[in-house]
Specification:
The protein is mostly helical.
Amino acid sequence: SSQFGSSGAGSRAQCFLTEFWTAVSRFLQQRLVDRMPAVAPAPLVVAPLISSSTTYAGNGKSVATSATGHLKEDALRGSRRESSRTRSGGWTVQAAVAGGAAAAAALRRRSRQARGSVACPSTAPTLTSTAPTMLPTSLSHGQTSADMAAVFDSLRNRSGAVGRTISGLPQQLPMILLSTYTVVPILSVVAAAVCPNTTRVARGLAASLGCLLGTGLGTYLERTKKEAARCSVLQLFADHVSKDTTTGELKHLVDQARKRFGVDGASPRGEAFEDAALCEIYVQFLNMLLDGPEHDADDLPALQRVRAALDLDGIVVGAAHKRVAQLLVSRGYSGLEGEAMRVAVDKFLFLSERAFADEQPEEARKYEMGRLLSLLNISDKDARQRVSAVSQALYQQSLNHVADAADSQTGGALAGASAAFGLASDKAARMNTEKYRHIASDLISGGRLSEEGKNRLQKAQQVLRLDDQAAASAFAAVAAPILRQEVAKVADALRSETEASAEQVKQMASTLADRRADLALPADKGLNIIVDGFRITLRSLYDKACKDARINGEARALATMDEMLAFAAVAGKVLAELHVDSAEAPQLTLPADSAAARRLYGVYLNRSFGTDESLAPPDDVAHLLELSEADEETARVEICQPRLRELYADSITKAEGGGPPLSLAKLGLIAEKTKFRLPASAMEEAALEVYKSRLEGFSGRVLKLHEKQDLDAARNFLELTEADVRKLHLKAFANIYETSVEEALGRSGVMSPETREALLQLRERLGLTEEDAEKIFYSVIDGRLKDMMEDVQEAWEEATYTKDALQKVWKQRGKDVGDDPSADGTGGEMALSGGPQLEGVRGSKLMTELCKVADFYIKNKVLREGKNVLHEDAYPVTVGKWIEDKTKEEIYGIFAWNAVTCQDSGSRDKWQAAKPHVGGILGMSQEQMQKTMVRMVSRWANMFIKQKIAESGKLGEEEISTLTNWVPTFFGIDKDVTKDMVQAANKGVLQSKVLKLLNQPRVTPEDVTKLRAEVDAWDLVLQKDLELTKPQLRSLFRVEVTAILEDTTKTNEEKQDAIAQSRESFSLDDREATVELQDLLKARTRGCLVNAVGDSLQGNETMAVGEMRRLELLADFARGVEGLKLNLDWDVAPSMRQQLVKVYASSAAGDGKAPDIELLEEILCLAAA
């Protein structure tokens, strides 16, 4: 200050030095910060999205995930961190992106406040929503506590010395003293105080330098405190991991340590501390667990204990597991492989799946596991299998403690363990049941279950949480082999003592009952096991019997079956002694294959028809082998039916050889048939077989009378009816009867009455039914008819084809038409001439052949006659599909036409009688025949109409009468058919008239009236039937309305009615008619005025007055019609119009009516003038 000379200059120098040292301080501070070791990562920065946003909802109901997952990891971690910490209310990644690190920090602070408001639990948190994470002391705590403490202590020792020193400072020392806010003032004061120069400038510079040093030292202290906080947390875990400190207490200690060093969860620095230091502790601990034994039940609760004590959220845990997965991959590259690598990966997958089990929403859990599987290159299916294997192995370790520690706590521990290990309930139940079997097997290994063993089993059932039924079934499965061994011994004794006495039976039953009691089996289950044991012996005997029947013969098989029946009988007595309840004793039966059982039953049944009555009945075998009624019946039929056939055949042979008659033999068979117990169908089948064998000797020839009598006697003996043997007789004698029918028809094709009577006697001799004989007869007729129809078709071709066409057809068949005069070449005209009168008959050969067919049909009585016989049923044999339907219709049409139009009365009567039969034989219905006839008549009528119209231009009254009266009567068709044809012809004529009328220069109303009268005469409608267009209808309407309007004899009302009728007749609507009427009135009134002007100029006042009178008439009508206006531009000078009105007013009215001058002046627009 003294050097600058003045106080003002000194002040400016002081300000300059202050600004200079401030700048230097900032530079040095930045350099110092950059060179200090980093402890915490940089603040969280949320990266922008690459593809699409991902939205997680805290309630798990709405999650929109990206299709490709192209989201920066930091953004996803920031978003999911908030999702895991705030379980209520949704949020979006866009919010984090918009706010950056500050927004993310604010979200974490809010979540920390929400978490801080929840009281710390006194017990361990849960791995799932239902099961506790920590197992009881007997199951969870092992020898790894010292190892865990060593891990934590090793991590602490690797920290900096300063951090360890600060962490060891007394708890009473506030850590706020080791901060920038404390160091900067102290160093500034100290620097100023120790400054050797006492000037104010020197001390200011010293204080500034102290401030600079304090700032750097404060930053260093902040980082050191974080390191000290990490050391403090590690020290807490090292001190308390091996003690009985609960997870809640340990978490409280960790929270106090973090709060002491200013890195608690509620502060932004706490977030960074959690992401770095605490995450690293979790990673190291997880790595230590992966290096441990393969299946250690302590790993999962220990890891969950660390997570809960550190209060790590899902995001930090996810990042830690990702880091561990990366380390696992790197360890694989560095030499860890084989079994050690598999063990580490399996354990890691299991711990990760359990760590993420409670993550919400579900997509978050899938994302975390998917990220790990992607790093480890493991499929989701493989991962699930490996996790399930670890879960089952760990749960099995828990089960192994049950035998030694079956106390009240173990049941809950197992339930918690199955849920904690993520084991499915069904798998846990199966493992519990299997464990129960092992315990029971050990307890009864000596052959009996002691009282202590019973108590242990009861405790094991309670611990394993098995219901009574499951426990009883599991115990029975273990005890059954021991009891079966005793049953096997008893069964061997029973096989050797088939005639055991009652005392022996009681002794054996007592032996089995004692063994069951020793095993503490319930009576019902023990009895079922004994029955199953006896069934084993029965099964061995049954298998031996089947083998004997197949290889060693029926005798050996029968001996084995006798032994099986004897064993079953004595074993049944033992079971009866064992069964003390009032209910029915269990039956000793053997489920067997139906085919093999039927065979054994048949073998035994066949022997039962012998004379040895000491044998067991066959029903015992059926009962023992559990044969159904259907199987028993099948086996009985296989054995007894051949015996019955043999008895039938022997009886018939003996009777024919002079032995006992069949009536007595029938009585003797009653007892045998009762013994066979065959169903009625089987006995009938056997009888038919016997009858068939008797009938085969006569097949192919005519029976003699005594042979017929013998067959009838055998049929009655076999209790068969004629209907039963109908098919057999038809098969044996159908060819004989068919040949006889062919011979009866002969060359003439007609059977005589004597021949028909002989066929009837032959039918009775051969035993054919009337129905079968009729079918054979019809089949022969069908063959003859087919041959005859070939001649008919040739005749039709000659009558219809041209000669050239006929030559082509016959050439294909190998026949030459030559100059055949019958080939008339009429072709498509189908034998019709050009006029209505037919002088001759075309197709006479066709008529002759068809008459032959009809005579053949009728004379052989093929036609069925009677009042109740329908047309379709009257002709049982028809042409069918031999000839096409179109061809059949044409053939019938020619025949029907010739039958009506033939001039020869004899031929006409013959053909008329054959006409319905020809149609029926052709397979045509009455409706089809009528349609064919109508078509033929229509062709003729159309030609007739065309000819008459061509001659005179119209149909006269005589022609119309011919068509509508004579033609229907002559041809036998409906009158409406010809009426429609005449109507259609007149329709064409009327259409031509309308066109000519519309093309005339001038159409008069008389022309329209005449046209309407002709249309009405034929019941036609102008628009519909004559197919007139709308313009044509309007033109006719105008012509007719013009005459109506100018009719002076009608009133306006009558005119309106007439116009309305005309509108309806021409099918015009109201609007169209109104428009046409208005245009017509305008045109007519204008024309009247123009004509009146012309007549007046020519001096012809009379005609001018007439035109004015018509003008008045039209105007008067228009005035009375609503909606009609005649506002016209008359194109005539007003003076001329006025003059015409005056002339008309001065003229005398011809009809006695005074002129309406006011109306004319109004219409002609003269009123204003």
